[in-house]
């Protein structure tokens, strides 16, 4: 039970902690100053949403997200959000691939090397279908999370930062709503694909509240660190590198590798959501559809990593607010409909 719960927890975190989040760019886009309460609300909202999505997915024993989506938003709106989820997954996976290119550029390599490496790695990963993704998450994410927490706490201690000194300043609390909304749509897609593999409600509780607690804690420490270097963030495509410049080159190399794996896990989750959804329409193998999907994405990476995040993330955050509302009140309206 515990092992299975942790497996799904790492899948949730791996889906969420991609290029935008791990690099700090997404956190800075929504939070920044006076956001402590917003991050606390995000952790609670996120846990509730994951719990509801997994519960519905488990109930339907689903293998893709459409049955889950119908339960959450209703049959009428499910067609609109079905299309929206598809384009969301497609565009955010493009962001991840572009993020791999940006990581390569930080070391003076061509972005095309970074893009080629992640595309090849994704194809190799999905030769084992979904099991390859689950195995990788359990192996990579503990190291990634541990490294990120270590660097952020080290920076907090070195800069003598006070984690709770501005707790009375919380005017940005409303940011919790679009930020949570932004992150739940891919979870519907990914968790909707594993409903037939979830065995108990205990797994759901461990996965949902564990992921919310971890992401909330990291978000708070990360955001607090970014506030201290706010003037420098404009100079960096990836804000994390503004923190890492204070430390030896070996740490920069290690965290860059970890950042790439964060990008990779989210890109893999996006591809999983897309391919499990379209597989019923095409009489082709899973790996073939993965290859075609990735080839269609590559030309769009020329827009640039930070531009993609600043352009599409706020739009999706607003459009997803209805889904967030339905998820948060799901236990109430679900009982009323029975």
TrEMBL record:
Q: Does the keyword Transmembrane apply?
A: yes
Q: Does the keyword Transmembrane apply?
A: yes
Matches recorded under InterPro entries: YkvI-like (IPR038728)
Q: Which domain of life is it from?
A: Bacteria
Identify the keywords attached in UniProt to this record, alphabetized: Membrane, Transmembrane, Transmembrane helix
Membrane-spanning regions, if any? 38-58, 79-98, 110-127, 139-157, 177-195, 204-222, 251-274, 286-305, 311-333
Name of the protein in question:
Membrane protein YkvI
Q: Per the UniProt entry, what species is this protein from, by scientific name?
A: Oceanobacillus halophilus
